[in-house]
Amino acid sequence: MALEGKTAVVTGAAMGIGKAMTEILLQNGAKVVLLDVNATAGESLKEALNKEYGQKTLFLNCDVESEEQLKAAFQKAADTFGRIDILCNNAGILNEATWEKTVSINLMGVIRGSYLALEHMNKMSGGQGGVIVNTASMAGIGPFLSCPVYTATKSGVVGFTRAMAAASVASGYGIRFNALCPGFVQTELMSNIVDRLGRFSHLTDATHKLVEKMGVLSVSEVAECLLELVTDETKNGEALVVFPKGKKYVTFSSLLQ
Ligand SMILES: NC(=O)C1=CN([C@@H]2O[C@H](COP(=O)(O)OP(=O)(O)OC[C@H]3O[C@@H](n4cnc5c(N)ncnc54)[C@H](O)[C@@H]3O)[C@@H](O)[C@H]2O)C=CC1
Ligand SMILES: CC/C=C\C[C@H](O)C(=O)/C=C/C=C/C=C\C=C\[C@@H](O)C/C=C\CCC(=O)O
């Protein structure tokens, strides 16, 4: 998929991985609608990006926990730029103490966003098709001992994404679905780990040891992998694991073979 003339929606776009995703999509010619609950960061990023790339971004204050706000944001995106071709369901938190909120944002937010995007992108209802990339995590592939609920949400994102990819092919939606599974990335989400582990805070040292063992990625390394999943039209139903020593597409064994 060439990105010139295409419109992307990125959730959690104001900071961290979402900000890097926004920048690489703009660098490659797309228009980008930034959705985030952090209005201050989102507005200032939009201003900076519009100065650098021309009027090719829109920021909307939007909480992915709210069906109403997401629905309005997608409609505003389509009204402003005429189409939605790419969705990056990236917004997420890590907090085992507020685990219901973690589920609501990380998993339910991805489902909400995917289903709302279908209304705009689905070829069976007048859309042009496109691609949806859901930000999971390495924790979606292997168990993260100090974050069982976070692990559950990210495992759910991987499973949902793979099932939607199959449903899309069978239904003729014309939309590819892929999961992006980074290892540890240097962002705000990794700060104050002990405060994020809730009942598992006694596993803070074990978590730090895991970070040391696996190393830490930069946001731009993750954004490069997003670009691959968006532009390579052969990619559908994939889970791409990214860590400092490299990246790999996960192979899932089929129970039917
Ligand atoms: N930092 C890491 O080590 C890794 C992060 N991830 C995932 O990457 C995604 C982005 O995380 P980071 O950039 O690291 O975190 P971050 O905390 O730096 O950025 C997250 C962004 O999402 C926004 N956000 C939070 N809740 C929201 C909501 N309800 N609605 C809309 N926006 C909301 C925040 O305001 C922030 O701008 C998350 O899904 C996270 O689980 C995956 C693997 C590794
Ligand atoms: C403090 C938490 C910060 C960030 C959370 C973030 O989402 C993250 O990167 C979490 C990673 C957790 C990894 C946990 C365990 C790893 C499990 C292993 O099974 C490795 C899994 C896949 C590696 C691919 C492979 O080579 O098999």
UniProtKB/TrEMBL annotation:
GO CC terms, sorted: cytoplasm
Claim: Oxidoreductase is one of the keywords in the record: yes
Gene Ontology molecular-function annotations: 15-hydroxyicosatetraenoate dehydrogenase activity; 15-hydroxyprostaglandin dehydrogenase (NAD+) activity
PROSITE patterns assigned: ADH_SHORT
Presence of keyword Oxidoreductase: yes
Lineage: Eukaryota, Metazoa, Chordata, Craniata, Vertebrata
EC number: 1.1.1.141, 1.1.1.232
Catalytic reactions on record: prostaglandin E2 + NAD(+) = 15-oxoprostaglandin E2 + NADH + H(+); resolvin E1 + NAD(+) = 18-oxo-resolvin E1 + NADH + H(+); resolvin D1 + NAD(+) = 8-oxoresolvin D1 + NADH + H(+); resolvin D1 + NAD(+) = 17-oxoresolvin D1 + NADH + H(+)
Pfam families listed in its UniProt record: adh_short (PF00106)
Keywords per UniProt: Fatty acid metabolism, Lipid metabolism, Oxidoreductase, Prostaglandin metabolism
GO terms, biological process: prostaglandin metabolic process
Purpose of the protein: Catalyzes the NAD-dependent dehydrogenation (oxidation) of a broad array of hydroxylated polyunsaturated fatty acids (mainly eicosanoids and docosanoids, including prostaglandins, lipoxins and resolvins), yielding their corresponding keto (oxo) metabolites. Decreases the levels of the pro-proliferative prostaglandins such as prostaglandin E2 (whose activity is increased in cancer because of an increase in the expression of cyclooxygenase 2) and generates oxo-fatty acid products that can profoundly influence cell function by abrogating pro-inflammatory cytokine expression.
Family: Belongs to the short-chain dehydrogenases/reductases (SDR) family.
Protein name: 15-hydroxyprostaglandin dehydrogenase [NAD(+)]
CDD domains xrefs: ADH_SDR_c_like
